[in-house]
Specification:
Blueprint: E1 5-13, E2 17-25, E3 30-38, E4 43-52, E5 56-64, E6 69-73, E7 76-78, H1 85-97, E8 102-106, E9 110-111, E10 120-129, H2 130-133, E11 149-154, H3 158-167, E12 171-172, H4 174-183
Parallel strand pairs: 4-10, 6-12
Antiparallel strand pairs: 1-2, 2-3, 4-5, 4-7, 5-6, 5-11, 8-10, 9-10
Domain Nudix hydrolase: 38-177
Protein name: NUDIX hydrolase
Family: Belongs to the Nudix hydrolase family.
Length: 184
């Protein structure tokens, strides 16, 4: 028997999120589970943007109300209806950081917190021509309510940069820890 979750009832709904009670049976009898999902596509993309030949990556820092603190993250955004993860990455990179880059590849959708949400996220690898950026003013184009700080971080200094952010009380997105582990 293949377990399957079915909507039992909607517990609450807001502008961006819906809280659902799900019913499932994994072979031990019927069980209930609460899940929080996004309205819309329920999918997102995060951008691993490398600046060459400088060997830097782009990170952003912004306040995240659910975490109650500033968070250090890779640039990211929700995939709009009719949009691909790659299109979202190009749009979000420009909006959040002001940089333009070319897409090198895109992962299949994955789940970052499947015990809480069915939201999927794709990793889009991008490359930014650092030489083309030199001497130019790079301006982010955030939404009206966004306050995003952009950091260009040498990959060789990433662990130290993350440690300094942690020491300041900044939360670190687990995708950054995963990236650091892959570099080790």
């Amino acid at each position: 028997m293949k377990p399957e979750a079915k909507l039992k009832r909607v517990l609450g709904e807001g502008r961006f999120l819906v809280l659902r009670e799900l019913e499932y049976d994994n072979g031990s009898g019927p069980r209930l589970w609460e899940a929080c999902d996004r309205n819309g596509t329920g999918s997102a993309a995060f951008i691993l943007a490398r600046i060459v030949p400088d060997d830097e990556i782009l990170l952003v820092r912004q306040f995240r109300p659910p975490a109650g603190r500033l968070m250090l993250e890779f640039p990211a955004g929700l995939i709009d209806p009719g949009e691909t993860a790659e299109q979202t990455a190009v749009r979000e990179l420009y909006e959040e950081t002001g940089y333009c880059g070319r897409v090198l590849g895109c992962s299949r959708p994955g789940w970052s917190s499947p015990g809480l949400t069915g939201e999927t996220i794709c990793m889009v690898r991008m490359e930014i021509d650092g030489d083309a950026c030199r001497g130019r003013r790079i301006e982010p184009h955030p939404e009206e309510n966004e306050r995003i700080e952009v950091f260009r971080v040498k990959r060789s200094g990433l662990a130290d940069f993350v440690a300094a952010q942690e020491a300041e009380g900044v939360g670190i997105d687990t995708k950054i820890y995963t990236y650091l582990a892959g570099m080790a």
